[in-house]
Prior knowledge:
Layout: E1 10-12, E2 15-20, H1 22-28, E3 37-39, H2 46-50, H3 57-69, H4 75-85, E4 92-96, E5 99-103, H5 113-127, E6 133-138, H6 142-151, E7 157-164, H7 170-177, E8 183-188, H8 192-204, H9 206-211, E9 213-216, H10 222-225, H11 229-241, E10 248-253, H12 258-268, E11 275-280, H13 285-292, H14 316-322, H15 327-333, E12 334-338, H16 341-355, H17 361-371, E13 379-384, H18 392-396, E14 418-421, H19 425-435
The structure holds pyridoxal-5'-phosphate.
Pyridoxal-5'-phosphate (PLP) binds next to helix 12.
Amino acid sequence: xxxxKLFKMFISLNNSEINHSxxxxxxxxxxxxGSLYYPKKINQLTNxxxxxxxFSNQEIGFIVMKSFTKDEIPxxxxxxxxxxxxxxxxPIKKIENNIFSFELFHGPTLAFKDVGATFLANSLEYFTKDxxxxxxxxxxxxxxxxxxxxxxxxxxxxxIILFPKNKISSFQQKQITTKGNNIYGLQVDGDFDECQxxxxxxxxxxxxxxxxxxxxxxxxxxxxxxxxxIYYFILFKELKKRRLEKxxxxxxxxxxxxxxxxxxxxxxxGLKFNKIIGSTNINDTIPRYLSSGVFKPNKTKRTISxxxxxxxxxxxxxxxxxxxxxxxxxxxxxxxxxxxxIETKNEIKKIxxxxxYVLDPHGAVGLVGLxxxxxxxxxxxxxxxxxxxxxxxxxxxxIKLKEDFFNISSNFNSEERIYSIxxxxxxxxxxxxxxx
Length: 436
Ligand SMILES: *Cc1c(COP(=O)(O)O)cnc(C)c1O
């Protein structure tokens, strides 16, 4: 019998001899050598780009993801996964003159991470075996919510969400801890980077991985990271419909730099953007790195844009690879801006006063970073990555809003169920063993 040979699409960033399929890569999360997976080949989607206004968002999603999943998921099944993933709107709102907000928060958990998390959950479910799969994920707030929602009740999957104690908004915490069943909200006595480090330790732990099947749902997982490319194609379509597709510059509020890395991938696939700006809060490792050449994460500081309270962005090695590991090329092509807390708050105040538009703290960081780099002849777009209602306590201290300003319910039906561990690896292991 002839066995058709599967094209293995993904290699390890540090070792191109490690070569895995899409399925293997999403189950492993991290490559066995401890580095990130990276596509062996990035296809130009010329036909899609030239005719983009004729395609629906779901068709765009299908074509983009098909270029990575190849023949591993039959078209019919991939279409079904995409239908579950791209099932809400991605509106563009004009804020002023040549500046637009690209709203990515209309999904079930009100942040842009819904798309990646839903795609990953449904792909894992598609391939899943009888053995229990343990998803380990560190969150600075929104990943946990998106993952809790998209993996809830998925058969044979346990989800363990590590979040830093008292460092995420109460809305975000409830999104993680009120689901129950196969979703475990694990409070860690530490910051986000420490949560992320615990997850990384687990991936490197061969004994643990021999005992249990373990995968990740952070944007280190290609199944979470790659679907974010779809946003950039949808954005391009929307602007082309308005005849605004020339001279676009985009600003991405960035923490782990997964979303912006997807944007740089979209450029490799053929989309034209003048500038891609990675805007950060005061956790500014990347802006400092681009100006000094020294990569030196500081201790993570707490801000009102908490989903970006990250000082060692896990996707940055992919970005360096996309620029051929050439620092000069990187600094020529990529801009990164640090935005302070005062600037963020002032922008929220100003945009509400002048235009009646409520920014969330992350979008506000994106907008400030955009304005610093935008010329008059350009179309500027900042990504609005979360709904402001998720950060209502912070927003209310900055602007006055009527009680029912957001026509949206923020009630949670169930009680919170919080599990706690100390900030050390032993405690995490104990917890994993206790639920398996
Ligand atoms: C996760 C998140 C970000 C940062 O995205 P990265 O891909 O980690 O850079 C920005 N804004 C919001 C609201 C988020 O949830």
